[in-house]
Each structure stands twice: as C-alpha cells, then as structure tokens.
Amino acid sequence: MPFRYKLNNILCHCRFFSTKSKKSLKTTRNEKFKSFDELFNYSNSQKSLQTEKVSKENSFDALYQECMTEIYKMRAEADCYSDETRESPEIQELTKKENEIVNSVFKRVFSSNLTNLNDMNNKLNSNKSSDIDPYWDPFKNIQNLKLQIASEFNQLSKLVSSVELYKYKSMIKKSLRQFNESYNFDIMKDTQKNSEDDIDYKYKNERFWDPDIDKRLILENNKRPFSFRDLHVLHNFVSEDGQILPRRLNLTTRKQQIQIFKSIKIARQMALFPYDWKPLYRDRIPLLNPLQYLFDELFYKYKKSKDLRSKAMINVMINKYPDVNAHRYLKYELQKMKRTTSKDSEVKDGNIVESNS
After folding, report:
1. Is 273 in contact with 267 (CB distance < 8 Å)?
2. What backbone torsions phi and psi does residue 238 show, to the nearest 5 degrees?
3. Are 32 and 24 in contact (CB under 8 A)?
4. 259 or 342: which carries more pLDDT confidence?
5. Are 324 and 292 in contact (CB under 8 A)?
6. Do 256 and 226 meet the contact criterion of CB atoms below 8 Å apart?
7. Looking at residues 148-169, what average pLDDT do you find?
C-alpha cells in the first residue's frame, strides 16, 4: 500500500507540473503577441541597431572578422607568441589616417544633403569614443530593389531569347541547305549509287567478299589465331555500344568469327575488354611480351618500307635478347638471299654464253 501511494503521488506531481508549464507558455505567448504586426512593432520599439556598430571593421562581415581575430589572438596567447599578432604602432597610425580620409570624403559628398554641417561633426565626434561609424547600416532597406532586379531579369531574358532565336535560325538555315542539296540531281545519283553498292555488299555471298588491304592485314593477325591477348585487333570487330559485329560486316570466315567471339568473351571475363562500349585508344595495347611486340613491329616496317634503321635494331635485339622469336625475320632474309644468289647465277651464265659466242 505505501509503495502504491508513493507512485500515485509522483504521477500527480508530474501531471500538475506538465499542465502548469504548458498553460503558462500558452498564456505568455497569447498575452504578448497576438499577430506578427504586434511582434514587429515591439521589435521596432526596442533599441534600434541601425546607428550602432560594435566592430571596428568596415566590411559587411565586420562582426565575423572581429570574432575571428579575437580567436586568433587567444590562440596566439595560448601558444606564447602573442607579440607577433599584435598590431604595430605604424599600422595603427595608418588606420587612423584612413578613417580621417574616409570621414573627410563623406563630409564632402554629403554636404549638399545635410542642412547643417555642425550636426554631422557632432555625430562624428560622439561616435569616436565607441568606434561607431555613422554611415555603416547593415539593416538599412535598399530602395527600388525590386525594380532593379526586375530590370536585370528583363535584360537577361532578352539576351537568352536572342540567343535562342539565333540557334533556331542557324538550325533552319542548315536544314534548308541540306534540303536543297538532297534535291540536287547529281548528288541524288551519287547517293543512289552508294546505297546500291552498300546493299549489294551486304547481301553478297561470302565467296565474293573482297576486303581492302587494311582489313586483310587485320584478319591475318600475323598468321596467328585470334586470342584474348590481341586487344589491338579485337576492337575492330566491335560496334560503339560493345556489340560484336556479324560476319558480313567483319568479312571473316566462320572459324575466325568463332575465335573472335571466344577471345572477346575471355577478355571481358578477365576485365581486359569493356562490355558496353568500344575500347579507347589507351586500352588497345596487346597483352604480350613488349619486346616481342616491338620486334614484330620493326620487322613489319622493314619488310614494308625496307627501313635499314629498323633492321639494325632487329639485329641488336636478336643478339641481346635470345628469347625473342625471330623465325619470320630469318626466313625472310633467307628467301632474300636465295633470290639474290639466283639472280647472280643467271647473270654469270649469261656472261659465259656471251663469251663463248
């Protein structure tokens, strides 16, 4: 029984205090301000801050800057180097001169608006002690702000509309130009020919496919089957959205198409080849020994353009790196020597026949 009695007393006291506090809050709010206008009038009746300036700074964020300087000073005093942060007497003199110049400028500018200059001097002298600038007014209402913003907005809208008109005009001119060109008789003939060739090319039998030289070099792949390492070749068989092109566009045999499909699949699983786009130029480096790749490129250059510099580099690489596969280069040089020897023998035989005759 006593425990229950205590609990009941505690609950009653809690209810009493809660209801009392809520009522007091409501009554105070309702008694003081019944509308927003009353609250605004009450704030205006209090001491106005329009003629008071607490900080010595002359900028819009003066209070913030003064607060930060005080924090820096306190930190400097705590770190025992407060002498470095104090203002020197030279700087204080310069600030005084600056204030005097500003006050003189204000006197000269606003002398026409003021009826009596003595009132102004009295204001300046009265504010010297408290470091208050009488012309600093952060709460002053800006006159004609709405008109200014509206005029700026109208100017901006005119500029945007003129730009849009220019864009539309350029688009119309471009479309008209294309329309006129499309109805030109000669151009129509050329377009019809090109379209017919494309259609014939697409629907030709694979026995009559005739790829160009670059395509043939790509399909040869240095006389090796396609693998996931040939990233510098596989990008030619993929569209811009990452889809593998069909045989009629790749001009490949069935065996080559299967090799390409498998190699791209393995390269994608190994995160070497993208799924949804064509690989960029920096992602087309083949996955093989760089020395072997350099050797093959030099040999191709030597074979195509007979570059002696690339031949010298090949000879150095053969002597320095015996692991490099130089079979194709040696075979090419052997065939070249056989041709030269056969030509020399033919020339000798011709000379012998001429001498006998």
Report:
1. yes
2. -130, 140
3. no
4. 259
5. yes
6. yes
7. 81
pLDDT tens digits, 278-311: 998 888 888 878 888 889 889 989 998 889 999 9
Would you say the C-alpha torsion 233, 237, 239, 243 has a positive or negative sign? negative
Cα distance between residue 342 and residue 344, in whole Å:
5
Whether the pTM exceeds 0.70: the reply is: no
Strands (E) in 254-296, as ranges, are: none
Q: Hey, what amino acid is at 210?
A: D
DSSP state for residue 223 in the 8-state scheme = G
Instruction: Give the total residue count for the chain.
Output: 357
Instruction: Tell me the CA distances in angstroms from 159 to 145, 172, 253, 263, one per residue in order.
Output: 21, 20, 60, 56
pLDDT at 177 over 90: no
Amino acid at 188: M
Dihedral angle sign, alpha carbons of residues 226, 231, 232, 233: positive
* Secondary structure (3-state) at 143: coil
Rounded to the nearest 10 degrees, how much is the dihedral formed by the CA atoms of 324, 327, 328, 333?
110
Show the tokens assigned to 148: 């200014």
**Predicted local confidence at residue 20, as pLDDT:** 43
User: What's the Cα-to-Cα distance from 52 to each of 41, 47, 140, 287, rounded to whole Å?
Assistant: 20, 10, 12, 76
- pLDDT one-digit tens code per residue, 65-75: 778 888 888 88
Tell whether the model's pLDDT for residue 10 goes beyond 60: no
pLDDT at 333: 93
Residues 225 and 253: their CA atoms lie apart, in Å, by 12
Contacts for 148 with CB less than 8 Å, ≥ 6 apart: none
CB 226 within 8 A of CB 233: yes
What is the residue-averaged pLDDT of the chain?
Answer: 73
Please answer whether residues 317 and 294 qualify as being in contact, where contact means their C-beta atoms are separated by less than 8 angstroms: yes
Q: What is the dihedral of CA 228, 230, 231, 234, to 10 degrees?
A: -90
244, β-bridge pairs: 238
**Which residue has better confidence, 263 or 166?**
263
Interval 205-234 mean pLDDT: 85
Cα separation, 261 vs 289, whole angstroms: 23
The residues, any chain, with a CB within 8 Å of residue 273's CB and separated by 6 or more, are 228, 231, 234, 264, 267, 279, 283
